Amino acid sequence: MRYDLVIFDNDGVLVDSEPLSNTILAGYLTELGHPTTYEESLRDFMGSAMHRVHDIVRERTGQDLPADFDDTFHARVFAAFERELTAVDGVTEVLEKLRADAVPYCVASSGSHERIRVGHRRTGLDRWFRDGTVFSAQDVGRGKPAPDLFLHAAERMGVAPERCVVVEDSRLGVQAALSAGMDVYGFTAMTPAAELVGANGYFATMAELPALFA
């Protein structure tokens, strides 16, 4: 094993939430008078913290989103999670192997702690992530593509950045990992490799991932 810590993104890597959340986000923004397609939501917001949604809408329109935007969006997303969220195919096998090999791992997500907990509880992944191994953009001042979240996770886990590897499926996440001085592998199930520029390698299914760590 070449690394002392594996840092997983959450949405799209551990839980198959990106189609659900971006469909809801695009619909809600459109409802509020900011026409957004599902594809545009993926392009602009996939892998980012909520403040990026506010920032981009403000930059493009000069308007602020409603004060209750985040609460309403999350309520809709959590309801969808409870109905239909699943774990990413094959990810439990990856986690089983890491645990069997005694390789430390954690999750560092742009989503809120509540979003992570709801998704993990719904999919059964909560049993794989003990207290102290779940990190959110809420914990730092800036979300991805800033490196802050990954550096925070490494520090809390007691591992030097250069000994960490990040598993990501978004352009912003890959940028954040590289800025943190970490290796990063791009998951191409939803995002083409050409959009994950700079990644150390790519994989299309979770079955391919353990070999990249060796």
Question: What's this entry about, in short?
Answer:
The protein is of the alpha/beta class and 214 residues long.
Describe the structure.
The protein has 214 residues and is α/β, with parallel strands linked by helices. It has helices spanning 18-31, 38-45, 50-61, 69-84, 91-100, 113-123, 148-157, 171-179, 209-213, and strands spanning 5-8, 105-109, 134-136, 164-168, 183-187, 201-203. It has a 6-stranded parallel beta sheet, sandwiched between helices. α1 packs antiparallel against α4 (69-84) and α4 (69-84) packs parallel to α6. The mean pLDDT is 96.
Please bin the fraction of helical residues.
Answer: 40-55%
Overall, the morphology is globular
Low-confidence stretches: none
Count of individual helical segments: 9
Largest sheet geometry: 6 strands, parallel
What average pLDDT do the residues reach?
Answer: 96
Topology readout:
Layout: E1 5-8, H1 18-31, H2 38-45, H3 50-61, H4 69-84, H5 91-100, E2 105-109, H6 113-123, E3 134-136, H7 148-157, E4 164-168, H8 171-179, E5 183-187, E6 201-203, H9 209-213
Parallel strand pairs: 1-2, 1-4, 2-3, 4-5, 5-6
Based on the model shown, name its key terms:
214 residues; alpha/beta; six-stranded parallel sheet; 44% helix; 12% strand; globular
